[in-house]
């Protein structure tokens, strides 16, 4: 009689592993906000005269309704000249700064023209008006909306990819973590007179920079667990 050897049943061992990778997602947008930086400097021997000139500009800006003004600041400092290791007080320097923003190039140009007219009306070399290059930028609203859309796109893509991977590997691949890194975009700068200080500069002030497309990017890091 033959002796039957018992059949040894070994469990099929399964193992799990993680897949970690990055993938970039991008969206093309048109910058929707024009901005420029304004700096008014006044030098006078008398502090009160500095304040009088500064107030002409500040009153106009406070009453402005056509554009958005941000980051306003005013400083008043004594000015000295130096010779033979000595300093001599020569007066005061007042500086008024603002960032001007608008979605409408005509309104921004009109605002700058009025500033130049105020400067011309002072008829003084002690009053200097500086207007920086105009640039297009992506507003916070457009940027946040674009990031939200890209996050949703990345999650949708990952869900589809995990299902495809599960089928190909004959495993259950599930999303474990998603970490999103947002890429900041630099403003687009355009040629324009860096200093507009008289009526001669008004021609330059009426030039609107050309809008150009920009990419908004995210580079999320994904971790999938397959088992």
- What is the CATH class of the largest domain? Alpha Beta
User: Quick check: average pLDDT?
Assistant: 85
- Please give the largest β-sheet: 6 strands, antiparallel
Low-confidence stretches: 1-13, 189-205
Secondary-structure-derived class? alpha+beta
Task: Based on the coordinates given, report the CATH architecture of the largest domain.
Answer: 2-Layer Sandwich
How many strands appear in the DSSP assignment? 12
Tell me the radius of gyration. Answer: 31 Å
Query: How many domains is the backbone divided into?
Result: 2
Spatial shape:
elongated
Please tally the helical runs, counting DSSP H or I stretches of 4 or more residues. 4
Strand content: 35-45%
CATH topology of the largest domain: Alpha-Beta Plaits
Helix content: 25-40%
The N- to C-terminal Cα distance equals 46 Å
Give the SSE order as H and E letters: EEEHEEHEEHEEEHEE
Organism: Arcobacter acticola
Pfam family, one: SIMPL
Protein name: SIMPL domain-containing protein
């Amino acid at each position: 009689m033959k002796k039957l050897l018992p059949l040894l049943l070994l469990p099929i061992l399964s193992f799990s592993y993680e897949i970690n990778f990055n993938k970039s997602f991008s969206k093309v947008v048109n910058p929707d906000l024009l901005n420029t930086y304004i700096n008014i400097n006044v030098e006078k021997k008398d502090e009160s005269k500095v304040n009088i000139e500064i107030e002409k500009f500040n009153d106009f800006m406070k009453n402005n309704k056509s554009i958005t003004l941000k980051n306003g600041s005013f400083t008043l400092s004594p000015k000295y000249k130096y010779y033979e290791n000595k300093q001599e007080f020569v007066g005061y320097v007042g500086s008024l700064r603002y960032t001007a923003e608008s979605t409408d190039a005509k309104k921004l140009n009109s605002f700058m023209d009025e500033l130049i007219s105020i400067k011309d009306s002072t008829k003084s070399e002690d009053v200097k008006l500086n207007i920086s290059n105009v640039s297009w930028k992506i507003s916070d609203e457009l940027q946040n909306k674009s990031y939200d859309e890209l996050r949703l796109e990345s999650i949708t893509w990952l869900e589809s990819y995990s299902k495809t991977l599960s089928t190909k590997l004959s495993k259950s691949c599930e999303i474990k973590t998603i970490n999103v890194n947002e890429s900041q975009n630099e403003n687009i700068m355009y040629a324009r007179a860096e200093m507009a200080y008289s009526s001669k500069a008004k021609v330059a002030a009426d030039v609107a920079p050309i809008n150009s497309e920009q990419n908004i990017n995210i580079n999320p890091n994904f971790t999938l667990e397959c088992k």
